Amino acid sequence: MKEGVLSVVGIGPGAAAHATPAAIEAIEKADLVVGYRTYIALVRHLLAGKEVVQTGMTEEIGRARAAVERARAGARVAVVSSGDAGVYGMAGLVFEVLRELGWKRGDAPRLEIVPGMTALNSCAARVGAPLVHDHCSISLSDLLTPWPVIERRLEAAASADFVIGLYNPASGRRTRQIVEAQRIIRRHRAGETPVALVKSAYREGERVVLSTLDGFLDYEIGMLTTVLVGSSSSSVFEGYMVTARGYANKYGLADGEARVGQRPGRSLVVEGALDEEREGRNGTRG
Ligand code: SAH
User: I want to staple 80 with a disulfide (CB 3.0 to 4.6 A). Which of 35, 75, 171, 271 is the partner?
Assistant: First the structure.
């Protein structure tokens, strides 16, 4: 019997050019391709002659289980997710099913995880360079996560000045979460903080809106939108949302020279900086 393969494949945001060659190869080699209807549609051009199992949003467990069983029985199976399959995608569920079945490394099926460009990356590219400094992502879906947990993460991310990417911000039925998220983040950030809404990046129906923390709720936000909330270092430049990495704190951007009291290759000198000289003496630095 031929060895079954289970490929968990991130296909990127949508356009063929943004799926990696490895992702395309995994799909091309598969006998069976499993995924949500919308994602299957995105890779339609690769599916000629293959068995395809497409399902709606609520049939995930059955779909993951079917994929694992078929691969175990010797088929080459590709489970596809948009973006990266390991970022709010099918990869987690595949592992839960494998664990429940008592699967061990080395057992059939052979497992292969193929990374993809996640929505955070593609949406960021559409609006400029918002993720240049520390950022995090939070899903506002409370279908599987208790709302108080999401609230706590929003509070922590907002107070620690991360750029925040909000996945699953709203759906037809879930409309209050994004309003609450705005309220929590606003307690820590200025109203004019840039906020970008990117709908269907690199897909048909793409829409990009650049707004502010006080203003963004006036625009349409749905299942296909990612919301990027700037930090205190984010600003708008020529219609782009850009987060400063901090070069200007240390160097003159006109001449590239270090500012008075700063040294290239050394920690930024500010109150509370780690004392490099003392670390050196203690032998913790080479
Ligand atoms: N695995 C996916 C995320 C799935 S969760 C990834 O890595 O990108 C679904 C959420 O992802 C959506 O609600 C939306 O917030 C975001 N998303 C996925 N594709 C997107 C796209 N092309 N444009 C904008 N947002 C997208």
Answer: 35
